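User: Just a sanity check before I run the rest of the batch. Below are the C-alpha cells for the first item. I only need the designed sequence back.
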C-alpha cells in the first residue's frame, strides 16, 4: 500500500528540479525556413510535465498555421536531465522521424543545448541541434538541421510565453 499523500507522490524528482522552470505549457509563434523550402510562420504550444517520482519530463509539441489554425506538426518525447548537467532527450515526430539527442543544461543561466546522436527513419535529415533559453520569462529556441544537401543550418525559431 502506498502511504504517500498526493502532494508527496507528486513531488519533483531531484534530477528534474534544475529544469523546473520549464514545467507547464508554453505558447507563442515561430518562424521556419531552410534553403530548400519557402519561409513560413506558425503558432506553437509546448508542454513539459513531470512524471511523479521519476527523473523524467514528458514533452509534447504541436504547431498550427497562424492564418487558419490548421495543424502542421507534432512531436512528443521524454527529457532526462542528469545531476552532472548533461541531458538526454528522445523525440518522435508526427512525420515518422525519431531523434535521440544528448546535450547539456545550465540551470543558473536557464539554457539547454542538444545535439542529435541518432536521427532515425529520415531519408534526408542527417543531423539536428536544438538550443533553448529562458530570456525575460520567455522560452526561446533555435532548431538547426543538416540534410544530405546542406550542413547544419537554422530551420526553426520561436518565442513562447508560459500560460
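Assistant: Here's the designed sequence for the first item:
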Amino acid at each position: 500500500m502506498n502511504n504517500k499523500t498526493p502532494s508527496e507522490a507528486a513531488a519533483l524528482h531531484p534530477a528534474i528540479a534544475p529544469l523546473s522552470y520549464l514545467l507547464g505549457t508554453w505558447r507563442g509563434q515561430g518562424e521556419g525556413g531552410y534553403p530548400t523550402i519557402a519561409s513560413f510562420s506558425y503558432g506553437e504550444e509546448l508542454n513539459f510535465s513531470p512524471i511523479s517520482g521519476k527523473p523524467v519530463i514528458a514533452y509534447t509539441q504541436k504547431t498550427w498555421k497562424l492564418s487558419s489554425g490548421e495543424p502542421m506538426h507534432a512531436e512528443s518525447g521524454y527529457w532526462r536531465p542528469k545531476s552532472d548537467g548533461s541531458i538526454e532527450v528522445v523525440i518522435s515526430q508526427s512525420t515518422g522521424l525519431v531523434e535521440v539527442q544528448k546535450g547539456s543544461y545550465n540551470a543558473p543561466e536557464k539554457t539547454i543545448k542538444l545535439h542529435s546522436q541518432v536521427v532515425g527513419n529520415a531519408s534526408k535529415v542527417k543531423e539536428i541541434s536544438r538550443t533553448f533559453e529562458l530570456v525575460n520569462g520567455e522560452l526561446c529556441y533555435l532548431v538547426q538541421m543538416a540534410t544530405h544537401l546542406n550542413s547544419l543550418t537554422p530551420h526553426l525559431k520561436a518565442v513562447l510565453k508560459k500560460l
